[in-house]
Amino acid sequence: MLVIVKETSRQMSAEAAEIVANRLRKKPNLVIGFATGSTPLGLYKLLVRMHKEDGLDFSKVTTFNLDEYVGLPPSHEASYGRYMRQHLFRHLNIPEQSIHLPDGMADDVDAHCEWYEEEIRKAGGIDLQILGIGANGHIAFNEPGSSLGSRTRIKTLAGTTLRDNARFFKRRQDLPKYAITMGVGTIMDAKEILLLATGRGKAEALRAAVEGPITAQCPASIVQLHRKVFIVLDKDAASKLAGSYPDSWHSSLLLER
Ligand code: F6R
């Protein structure tokens, strides 16, 4: 586990973009797992810029998103499908058929989740999974108490998550109670994980994830068992870590591997 602490969230995004671009240049048919939320927005802006200005090519990439709200069509302004199109997909050259998002409107959710897992397997597994972290330690929508071996399935959203995400819904009563989410086991199968966090609101979750015991009460803590995880933070998100971590890590050292 490599923890990299940057001064600002802008620098965190730049470091993350370097890691993604490096992996993509090394493997043009990279299978990328994408997260939504506020944290990766800076990274996505930079990837769009690298595509437009430096020709970073996404034409052979396959993508799998972590999660989607149940009951929201991709046209809904708060759906993750819409988020991905708006912030990333419509700006890049990823073929439509290579993009995978859980379908929040699936009739048979269990069959859909099995299909999603199968698609990931057929793609050869996820090479690089991008993750944010909830203030309660969730990854994707694996809330505290989620099985650490879980696969893609439907989950009830925690009260804290509903509160945190209410900002994306005009009317609180529209906020979904369930989501389809990759499981913790699905995420851990990714060959590399890039976990990002910014801000003091994430500091306690980060402390529990990086330095606490591995427990389902903080699903993110499972990444301690992953063989290749990069945790890129800004100073505020790292403010409760007791260990000392590089603040000026030279990406190239890491990215040679
Ligand atoms: C989103 C996701 C969530 C978020 C987490 C942090 O696809 O899987 O786990 O990464 O809730 O959200 P932000 O970045 O908005 O603080």
How would you describe the overall organization of this protein?
- The protein is an alpha/beta fold and 257 residues long.
- The chain has one domain: Rossmann fold, CATH 3.40.50.
- It is built from eight helices and ten strands.
- The strands form two sheets. The chain has a seven-stranded parallel beta sheet, with helices on one face.
- Strand 2, helix 2 and strand 3 form a beta-alpha-beta unit.
- Helix 1 crosses helix 2.
- The mean pLDDT is 94.
- Bound molecules: fructose -6-phosphate (F6R).
Write the layout of secondary structure elements.
Layout: E1 2-6, H1 9-26, E2 31-34, H2 41-54, E3 62-65, E4 67-69, H3 80-87, E5 99-100, H4 109-122, E6 128-131, E7 153-156, H5 159-165, E8 178-181, H6 184-188, E9 192-197, H7 203-211, E10 229-234, H8 251-255
Parallel strand pairs: 1-10, 2-3, 2-6, 3-5, 6-9, 9-10
Antiparallel strand pairs: 4-8, 7-8
Helix pairs in contact: 1-2
In short:
The protein has helices at 9-26, 41-54, 80-87, 109-122, 159-165, 184-188, 203-211, 251-255; strands spanning 2-6, 31-34, 62-65, 67-69, 99-100, 128-131, 153-156, 178-181, 192-197, 229-234. The protein is of the alpha/beta class and 257 residues long. Helix 1 (9-26) packs across helix 2.
Attribute tags:
16% strand, binds fructose -6-phosphate, alpha/beta, 257 residues, Rossmann fold, 8 helices, 31% helix, 10 strands
